[in-house]
Write a structure and sequence with these properties.
heterodimer; A: mainly beta; six-stranded mixed beta sheet; B: mainly beta; seven-stranded mixed beta sheet; 12 strands; globular
């Protein structure tokens, strides 16, 4: 049973437009959510996170929205830039786990066209 | 600049060999993790450790073991390598709950 799902394997947007990446989860114990970006031949890099007590968190061009009732979160990138082209992973962790271990989705490959 | 260093970027091993993947972090983090990344399967947790000599199984521990004798070092051991363990292996660390991970660059392991 996959507890974190990213249903879109890929997304293509034009430079300057908004990129919206989506993520759904099934485990109601998850209370902390994260997004990572991964370039080829590199490890993932932490991007932004949100606690379940919030519904929005913003950091520059990146905003994460959390809808707890729908068990859905999304990452908005505005404006999108060619350097944002990467694989984006959604991850979630639960407070009752040792080390705050995270469960990851399969990833969405974002391509931003100049 | 904080770092997680994985000892090898690429490894080729033979079926049945015992394989050691080493990971070192310089951030004094409590928690360390081993994931593997496979196409279409995302990142799957193999093992993790929340203190020296403390370890816990992740979602896919079969065929693997780990060692954490010192806080900064977390080793992944493939007891008898098999072709289905060909994968990208990623080590990560974090200072505690509700923190993002810092990942290493990964080790691409091929078992032939």
């Amino acid at each position: 049973d996959q507890q974190v799902k990213q249903n879109s394997p890929s997304l293509s947007v034009q430079e300057g437009r908004i990129s919206i990446l989506n993520c759904d989860y099934t485990n109601s114990m998850f209370d902390y959510f994260l997004w990572y970006k991964k370039y080829p031949a590199e490890g993932p890099t932490f991007l932004i996170s949100i606690s379940s007590i919030k519904d929005k968190n913003e950091d520059g061009r990146f905003t994460v929205f959390l809808n707890k009732s729908a068990k859905h979160l999304s990452l908005h990138i505005v404006p999108s830039q060619p350097g944002d082209s990467a694989v984006y992973f959604c991850a979630a962790s639960a407070r009752n786990t040792n080390a705050g271990k995270s469960t990851f989705g399969d990833g969405t490959t974002l391509t931003v066209k100049p | 600049d904080v770092k997680v260093t994985q000892s090898s970027r690429y490894l080729v091993k033979r079926t049945g060999e015992k394989v050691f993947l080493e990971c070192v972090q310089d951030m004094d983090h409590e928690n360390m993790f081993w994931y593997r990344q496979d196409p279409g399967l995302g990142l799957r947790l193999i093992y993790f450790s929340y203190d020296v000599k403390m370890k816990e199984k992740g979602d896919i521990p079969e065929g693997y073991s780990v060692s954490r004798e010192k806080k900064e070092r977390f080793s992944l051991i493939l007891e008898s390598a098999s072709t289905n363990q060909t994968s990208m292996y990623l080590c990560a660390s974090s200072p505690g709950q509700n923190y993002g991970y810092t990942f290493g660059s990964g080790t691409r392991l091929t078992v032939v």
